[in-house]
Design goal:
Shape: elongated
Strand content: 5-15%
CATH class of the largest domain: Alpha Beta
Number of strands: 14
Low-confidence stretches: none
Structural class: alpha/beta
Number of domains: 3
Length: 462
Amino acid sequence: MRVCVIGTGYVGLVTGTCLAHIGHHVICVDNNEEKVKLMKSGQSPIFEPGLSELMTSASASGNLEFTSDLAAGVAHGEILFIAVGTPPLPTGESDTRYVEAVARGIGAHLDGDYKVLVNKSTVPIGSGDWVRRIVLDGLAERQKAQSSEGTTGEEVVAKTGVQFDVVSNPEFLREGCAVHDTFNPDRIVLGSNSQRAMDMMIQLYKPIVDRKFAENTSLPPVPVVMTDISSAEMIKYAANAFLATKISFINEVANICDRVGADVTQVAKGIGLDSRIGSKFLQAGIGWGGSCFPKDVSALVHTADDYGYEAHLMKAAVEVNERQRLIAIEKLQQVLKILKGKTVGLLGLTFKPDTDDLRDAPSLNLIENLNRLGAKVKAYDPIVSQTGMRHGLSGVLVETDPERLADGCDALVLVTDWDEFRNLDYGKMAKLMNHPVMIDGRNFLDKKGLEAAGFQYVGIGR
């Protein structure tokens, strides 16, 4: 099938590349000329395991192209994905101006061929009808410019025969595992009131539904949830809000464990074996971050407020997470007492491993608060340190290797659970430090091994 993906962030680029890999002809559109030039040269603008290799092979096969020409993308695609960012506003609601601009641009370029417009961006509930109206506005503006006659989008549709439907197809990709998640989804959610649009989406995803590109091709077909647009949009928000709440819950349990002498890792294991609970997202630590959980929980709380309902549980999940980010500071103060004049090293900067994403990362809160308390802050991150991407970081010295990080530090804080951090030479690092203290902010490291290497080990809820 012919596909156009508008927006080449984590979701858009991964979606477009993977659809091209399974055999569709995909054109990815982005209004950033430098970014398009980079992708045309075969380089990915984001770090995502396995993505660069797929981009190279799909481009070589002719299935994947990149352009800044929206008109060309719209003309090409039978299915048009809107995959631009919807960052949070200070109020907590989603900033939908980029979605609006794309929808209006699509309307300005639609022709007589039937198109399916897919909301892949995480948009406020009820955005399906809103996107349709914006597309019609774009159609009307084009008609007015061409004929100097005022008319409505619906009238243009009647005159020109332009046909399109809107589908909500939320993404459930985890940064660092996005390629794997695309080919091995737990489910595919489709929301629309058009059977024609649904049939085209089923055809698009058939190779993935049939697990032809899955890690385990013998598994049953991927479940496809077909529903109305609003329910599909709500599924995305509800899923992320639940997972964020689950993390906040185990962090509260960890804080109680700290006070009563229990070990949260054992508690999590014990409750996670209950099939009604499950073991995932029960890893206590210094809180969740990234581009999805904070934004989506806040957006759902804001939607509830708009409709006269106060989402107490979700607000509490956010409050617990905000407090949890200060736990590492409290533990540093318990061990080192006064932090003014001390040097603290952060192991990891990104909000999770296998990504270069620093959006709403707990490390940023730590840097800000440590600076406020008069400490010198150093950091090492496998991606940020090696690529030179500083993302506007300030108040922190980014070192190029773990030994340089440890040198002269009074304590280290494990912020991001990068797998390579399990096997660092902690014996050597301990000898380079003023006080070999490790605050394990993810309960990720081997406590006995670190103590044998000379560290004072402090976990979360342990």
